[in-house]
């Protein structure tokens, strides 16, 4: 079966054609990775770090070309695509040093003539399934540290970002990776699941990473659990932004605009609901609606807030979410609702609206806790707005949907910041900043419906791709039994000071 990847801003532009494989081919790729893993693990970690350095240099040398492939294939604005490519370079820059810092520890023993040590060992073969909204940055969060730690990789990218994935793979292999260390597999979803199932049954995969929807993540987690494995799950979000009565409203509007509508709201960290104090609710809504109405949408190679939907399936999904708007809601911030066309135009649109999958931004005010639009992720340019009276109520509303990826609070009161931080269930908290954004040396990940607590980026991800091994070395010449033969020093426990 051949998959045709088209430009979502110009549906007549075919970007790539890729042959999709079946479940057995996925398992075969895992077998190749298994054969290559021991030799790759035997390469000293600082030398593996040098390969990571090579990758970073090649990414920087090809940054503009790679960014343009991303923009053409998924419609991400070019400025954001450049930032995404920079994220790969930043990730490589960080993990180059970790090749010299895969430290274990020397631990004091409770017995004489005995030493205790710990070592980090690679997990083995890793299998990563990634989404296409960040077709090169997110894979680097998995692949770079996994390779550095001595693992081999089977990578299944999204079909609709096939060209970007192939370019990414070509850069990595050009950096000096031996054959079989990094393997790319293009496959449809059900074949990927079956292939992963086969690989796990045959003992070919030791660690799974998945970025995508909460629903599919639950299936991946269940499958791995049957094989006593704990996957890395980075899933969806319904990311709240609390705006307090003392917030800088203009700054909050900027944050909401980028959080809610950057990449067309098609990020796992996109703003879901703005939870605004009742005293500033109306003024915030007015300013936010005005900023949204004035924002430029259209050709992603131009200066726009966002471009098209990533792929036709997301356009279909977004149409369903628009159907969740109810009579008690009010819609703001746009001259229309639904797909932007010549007959349903948007003021200031850049480019040919009928050429691609462009949608009006939508602000839905008056959302309630029992609304579908409040409780579920709405992957696309849609932001809900509701109000609160006390901060405890805002935190309760922020946690209510059960996701726990990203969150934000806008306030000038440090007390509110710490109250929000301690009450929110999200893995990431921003203060006076957007819900979106990551840095290569900070842990990224969520809880609840957003993930299983695993973290990407920074030193924290090393625990996902290594296993601790303890070594107990006794050179006393006799069998010493812990807790049994431990020397004891007696104290006079009846001692009392005189006077």
UniProtKB/TrEMBL annotation:
What Gene Ontology molecular-function terms does this entry list? aldehyde dehydrogenase (NAD+) activity
UniProt key word Oxidoreductase: yes
Tell me how this protein assembles.
Homotetramer.
The EC class name is oxidoreductase
Query: Which family does the UniProt entry place this protein in?
Result: Belongs to the aldehyde dehydrogenase family.
Asked if the Swiss-Prot or TrEMBL record annotates the protein with the keyword Oxidoreductase, the reply is yes
Spell out the PANTHER family in the cross-references: ALPHA-AMINOADIPIC SEMIALDEHYDE DEHYDROGENASE
Write out the catalytic residues in the record. 234
Name this polypeptide is given: aldehyde dehydrogenase (NAD(+))
Q: Could you tell me which Gene3D superfamilies the record lists for this protein?
A: Aldehyde Dehydrogenase, Chain A, domain 1, Aldehyde Dehydrogenase, Chain A, domain 2
Which keywords appear in this protein's UniProt record, sorted alphabetically? NAD, Oxidoreductase
Domain (Aldehyde dehydrogenase): residue spans on this chain: 4-471
Instruction: Tell me the Pfam families matching this sequence.
Output: Aldedh
Question: What EC numbers are recorded for this enzyme?
Answer: 1.2.1.3
């Amino acid at each position: 079966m051949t998959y045709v990847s088209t430009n979502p801003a110009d549906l007549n532009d075919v970007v790539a054609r890729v042959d999709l494989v079946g479940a057995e081919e996925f398992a075969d790729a895992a077998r190749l990775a298994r054969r290559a893993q021991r030799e790759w693990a035997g390469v000293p970690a600082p030398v593996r770090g040098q390969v990571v350095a090579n990758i970073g240099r090649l990414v920087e040398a090809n940054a503009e070309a790679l960014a343009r492939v991303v923009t053409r294939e998924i419609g991400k604005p070019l400025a954001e695509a450049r930032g995404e490519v920079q994220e790969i370079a930043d990730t490589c820059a960080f993990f180059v040093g970790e090749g010299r810092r895969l430290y274990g520890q020397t631990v004091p023993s409770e017995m004489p003539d005995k030493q205790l040590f710990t070592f980090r060992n690679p997990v083995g073969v890793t299998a990563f399934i990634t989404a296409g909204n960040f077709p090169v940055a997110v894979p680097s969060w998995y692949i770079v540290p996994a390779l550095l730690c001595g693992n081999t990789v089977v990578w299944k990218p999204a079909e609709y970002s096939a060209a970007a994935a192939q370019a990414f793979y070509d850069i990595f292999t050009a950096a000096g990776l031996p054959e079989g260390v990094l393997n790319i597999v293009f496959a449809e979803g059900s074949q990927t699941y079956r292939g992963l199932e086969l690989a796990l049954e045959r003992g070919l995969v030791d660690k799974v990473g998945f970025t995508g929807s909460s629903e599919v993540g639950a299936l991946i987690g269940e499958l791995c659990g049957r094989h006593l494995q704990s996957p890395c799950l980075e899933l969806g979000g319904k990311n709240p932004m609390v705006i307090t009565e003392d917030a800088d409203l203009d700054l909050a509007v900027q944050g909401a605009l980028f959080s809610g509508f950057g990449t067309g709201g098609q990020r796992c960290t996109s703003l879901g609901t703005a939870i605004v104090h009742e005293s500033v609710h109306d003024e915030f809504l007015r300013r936010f609606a005005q900023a949204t109405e004035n924002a430029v949408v259209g050709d992603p190679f131009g200066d726009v807030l966002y471009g098209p939907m990533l792929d036709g399936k997301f356009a279909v999904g977004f149409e369903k979410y628009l159907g969740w708007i109810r009579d008690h809601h009010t819609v703001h911030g746009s001259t229309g609702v639904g797909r932007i066309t010549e007959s349903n135009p948007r003021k200031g649109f850049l480019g040919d609206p009928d050429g691609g999958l462009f949608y009006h931004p939508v602000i839905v005010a008056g959302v309630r806790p029992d609304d579908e639009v409040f409780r579920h992720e709405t992957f696309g340019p849609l932001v809900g707005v509701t109000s609160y009276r006390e901060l405890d109520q805002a935190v309760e509303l922020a946690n209510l949907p059960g996701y726990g990826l990203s969150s934000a609070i806008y306030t000038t009161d440090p007390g509110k910041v710490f109250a929000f931080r301690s009450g929110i269930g999200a893995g990431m908290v921003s203060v006076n900043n957007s819900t979106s954004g990551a840095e290569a040396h900070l842990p990224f990940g969520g809880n609840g419906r957003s993930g299983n607590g695993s973290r990407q980026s920074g030193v924290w991800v090393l625990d996902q791709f290594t296993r601790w091994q303890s070594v107990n070395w006794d050179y006393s010449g006799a069998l010493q039994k812990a807790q049994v033969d431990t020397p004891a020093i007696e104290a006079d426990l009846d001692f009392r000071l005189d006077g």
